[in-house]
């Protein structure tokens, strides 16, 4: 159950007949241990997966389509490797499914089993919801407005600074300059990240340089967001912290991890322009 053993970066035979065994789980604990996260998580949250290439046959053989959204709890012991997820979803292409509810239950059962926790599934269909889908941009103050030099391209928490001896503030900041790389294929993962916090004011230039420092880093989306959360918490000591990243899609899937130290509602799943 390591990325090297997954179908990622390898030739794969695509099947269009339903096959839940294609899902390849990867334990979260190993990556978490490397950044000092133990069994007691310092956050809670969700990984939001949007799947845009889902199609199946109804009982009369007519193709159907939908956009599927999966909500995977951060406390689940496993993530699902993204190519295996794509292969699994592709296996519905020539599979007859009785109804939309039946499809939702199949997806929920299979992905929950792979992740080791209960996963919520929503299906948006052309007839009822496609016209309601919208594109937004992150709220808050853009860090990308800053004109600065940057020359660190591996995560360096020393870039983070905060006014620890001053009165606390509350801010929402975001950047569209997040980039990391797949730990198996080396392909780039492009994303945007939003940071909301209450606590000592974080130095904006240092935070932007820190986000830029992920540019040559290898790690899955969920792992990068958790590292960002831990580094900000340790270096800047906020009283409250939430980190939400939205990555551009690959293979018809986008992954959007959300981590928070306090009780917040589920973040908006509206697509960003690049998604």
TrEMBL record:
Main location: cytoplasm
Gene Ontology CC annotations of this record: cytoplasm
Intracellular or extracellular location(s): Cytoplasm
Binding site for NADPH: 82-83, 250-251
Binding site for substrate: 80-82, 221-222
GO biological process assignments: tRNA queuosine(34) biosynthetic process
Reactions the enzyme catalyzes: 7-aminomethyl-7-carbaguanine + 2 NADP(+) = 7-cyano-7-carbaguanine + 2 NADPH + 3 H(+)
Active-site annotation: 182, 189
Pathway: tRNA modification; tRNA-queuosine biosynthesis
Keyword NAD: no
Domain NADPH-dependent 7-cyano-7-deazaguanine reductase N-terminal: 14-123
Coiled-coil residues: none
Pfam family, one: QueF_N
A single MF term (Gene Ontology): preQ1 synthase activity
EC annotation from Swiss-Prot or TrEMBL: 1.7.1.13
Presence of keyword Oxidoreductase: yes
InterPro entries attached to this UniProt entry: GTP-CH-I_C/QueF, NADPH_dep_7-cyano-7-deazaG_red, QueF, QueF_N, QueF_type2
Subunit structure: Homodimer.
Family: Belongs to the GTP cyclohydrolase I family. QueF type 2 subfamily.
Functional description taken from the UniProt entry: Catalyzes the NADPH-dependent reduction of 7-cyano-7-deazaguanine (preQ0) to 7-aminomethyl-7-deazaguanine (preQ1).
Protein name: NADPH-dependent 7-cyano-7-deazaguanine reductase
Organism: Trinickia violacea
Name of the gene: queF
